[in-house]
Design goal:
CATH topology of chain B: ABC transporter involved in vitamin B12 uptake, BtuC
CATH superfamily of chain A: P-loop containing nucleotide triphosphate hydrolases
Number of domains of chain A: 1
Number of domains of chain B: 1
Number of strands of chain A: 10
Order of helices and strands of chain A: EEEHEEHEHHHEHEHEEHHH
Radius of gyration of chain B: 19 Å
Number of strands of chain B: 2
Order of helices and strands of chain B: HHHHEHHHHEHHHH
Bound molecules: adenosine-5'-triphosphate, magnesium ion
Mean pLDDT of chain B: 91
Mean pLDDT of chain A: 90
Strand order of the largest sheet of chain B: 1-2
Strand order of the largest sheet of chain A: 6-7-8-3-9-10
Low-confidence stretches of chain A: none
Oligomer: heterodimer
CATH architecture of chain B: Orthogonal Bundle
Largest sheet of chain B: 2 strands, antiparallel
Number of helices of chain A: 10
Shape of chain B: globular
Chain lengths: ~260, ~300
């Protein structure tokens, strides 16, 4: 369970460039819920995820996870609770390290690291097994440099990395945006499988209205640092992409054409 | 080249292999361009020499020199992390400060160790001459250190340090305290350089405050040369490359010095090294990661 209470984030405070990336966000996400997050560029979506991961300090408000106030916890300390996949395939992995070393880093996420070998025989066998399940043929390339993989392969591995250590919350920031449609569908399918298998509380940012409605069980739209609408349950099931766009313009009281959101 | 000159080159190459390992840890593993080494090398020499003259056991004195190097590295890390001073500048500040500190420690610009007991004493007086004992002893130390460093880098902790240098944001998302890693890495790096300084003083019989000038560039030359000669991603190969690079570099320098036609003097060493490193940085297609790192701004 995540509670975001009256959260505000400001960049460049008391400078001419002062930007309020989040104005006042209240959001309660029950355990195991899969929320999709939409909104135009600069709406504050990444900032919201950064607030949850601990990368963006709050100017005001608080964040609670599992009933614990984590507002002051740095990213490092939250790593035992939160796993994330970045929008940029390069950001979530170390390209200079091998696939198995990247996996080993993720497998020890949020735990005390020992002086024992990072990639021992048992771990290697486990990694190979999990990579085989991806169906990308990566199980034979454990010692290849991460930088050699394509963007889609890297995102798939990033997603797998997110699941290697215990956690409660999965943050996905446009994690299929850089992928071709076919790979995007594949990674999305994988996402759905992983989320339901592990019963993870998930936030997924996307610019695709289609993905926003097809995945998960609740959709939240941000605009200028505020939650402008929030639908779930029965109401959401009856929605289609045009409805979503109509709802958005109604809430904002302004007309937005289809493209500006889809391409945003 | 005479056998004595050859063994001498290997001896110095082995001492600087420890510097190369330190430079490898800061520049390559942590992506932290660190010039502290120009100060931590003579610091190691000064601490070891002063402690030995004061009657310390040479092995304890050497350990103390390593600890002093570690502290110097942590000061640079502190300036960088706590006050957000650019790494290069932070390390220059420490290096400059160390020049005064080293003079204070010794109380004078140099200290002679010729009559003193050193780490080598237990091995002298046997059938081997000092010229042979020194490189053998240093080789044993360097191999031991290299194995420990490689083993550390292959461990979970070492992997966390490598991730910190490669992608700090990702490292933090994996629960790695990147600040702590930089402190630890800089301490380890400069402890090795301090050890090099301590061994340099004991094998040469003196410690001198000016002996640190150009240490960083010699270390870099060794790392670059090693990476060019031995390519591979396994930590053992990367670590071995530093040692090979340092020794090959010294032998090459010795050869260059002995060619009369070149008319080089020992004092031209730093100029030659600087030229060599510059060429390595500028040469297109050489594409070695150190040059890429040096040309990139910060991290
Ligand atoms: N580090 C930063 N420094 C200054 N301003 C920032 C910073 N990060 C974000 N902002 C600003 O905060 C606002 C929200 O940015 P955010 O990245 O959360 O948007 P987003 O909804 O993720 O947009 P996109 O769809 O383009 O990824 C923007 O106005 C942005 O310019
Ligand atoms: Mg974003």
């Amino acid at each position: 369970m995540i509670v975001v209470d009256n959260a505000a984030v400001v960049f460049g405070r008391s400078t001419p460039l002062e930007t309020w990336a989040l104005h006042k966000v209240d959001l309660t996400i029950p355990e195991g819920q899969f929320v999709t997050v939409i909104g135009s560029n600069g709406a504050g979506k990444s900032t919201l995820l950064n607030v949850l991961s601990g990368d963006a300090p709050l100017a005001r408000g608080r964040v609670e996870m599992d009933g614990i106030d984590v507002t002051r916890w740095p990213t490092t300390r939250r790593a035992g609770l939160v796993a994330r996949v970045f929008q940029d395939p390069m950001a979530g992995t170390c390209e200079g390290l091998s696939i198995e070393e990247n996996l080993a880093l993720a497998a020890t996420r949020g735990t005390r690291r020992s002086l024992g070998r990072s990639v021992g025989r048992a771990r290697r066998a486990d990694f190979a097994e999990r990579l085989r399940e991806l169906g990308l043929g990566l199980e034979t390339r454990l010692t290849d440099r991460m930088g050699l993989l394509s963007g889609g392969q890297r995102q798939a591995v990033s997603l797998l990395m997110a699941t290697l250590a215990g956690m409660k919350i999965l943050l996905l920031d446009e994690h299929v945006a850089a992928l071709d449609p076919k790979t995007a569908e594949f990674v999305l399918g994988l996402t759905n499988r992983i989320v339901s298998e592990n019963r993870l509380t998930t936030l997924m940012v996307t610019h695709s209205m289609r993905h926003a409605l097809d995945c998960g069980d609740r959709t939240v739209m941000l605009h200028e640092g505020r939650v402008v609408f929030d639908v779930g349950g029965e109401e959401r099931r009856g929605l289609d992409v045009p409805d979503l766009l109509r709802m958005f313009s109604r809430v904002r009281g302004e007309q937005l054409d289809n493209d500006s959101l889809l391409l945003a | 080249m005479s056998q004595v000159a050859f063994l001498g080159a290997i001896e110095v190459g082995l001492v600087y292999a420890l510097v190369a390992l330190g430079v490898f840890l800061s520049f390559r593993i942590l992506s932290f361009p660190d010039l502290t080494v120009d100060g931590s090398f003579p610091l190691g020499a000064a601490v070891a020499a002063t402690a030995i003259v004061a009657g310390w056991d040479p092995y304890l004195a050497t350990a103390l020199a390593m600890a002093a190097g570690a502290v110097a590295g942590m000061v640079t890390a502190f300036l960088n992390i706590r006050f957000r001073i650019l790494h290069l500048l932070a390390s220059i500040l420490t290096m400059i400060a160390l020049f005064s500190v080293n003079l204070r420690i010794m109380g004078r610009p140099n200290t002679a160790l010729l009559q003193e007991e050193t780490v080598l004493t237990p091995f002298l007086g046997g059938s081997l001459s000092a010229h042979e004992v020194k490189p053998l002893f240093l080789a044993a130390v360097v191999v031991l250190v290299a194995i420990l460093v490689a083993r550390f880098l292959a461990s979970e902790m070492g992997l966390a340090m490598r991730a910190t240098g490669a992608n700090p944001r990702m490292a933090r998302a994996q629960g790695i305290g990147t600040g702590l890693q930089v402190y630890a890495g800089m301490a380890l790096s400069n402890a090795l350089v301090g050890l090099a300084g301590a061994l340099f003083a004991q094998t040469n019989g003196f410690a001198d405050v000016t002996s640190g000038v150009g240490t960083i560039i010699i270390g870099l030359a060794a790392v670059i040369l090693g990476e060019t000669l031995m390519r591979g991603r396994s930590v053992l190969i990367m670590v071995a490359a530093c040692i090979v690079g340092s020794i090959v570099y010294r032998i090459a320098v010795q050869f260059a010095l002995e060619i009369d036609a070149l008319g080089l003097r020992a004092s031209d060493m730093n100029l030659v090294t600087a030229l060599l490193v510059t060429v390595a940085l500028v040469l297109p297609g050489l594409g070695n990661p150190v040059s890429a790192l040096l040309r990139r701004n910060g991290r």
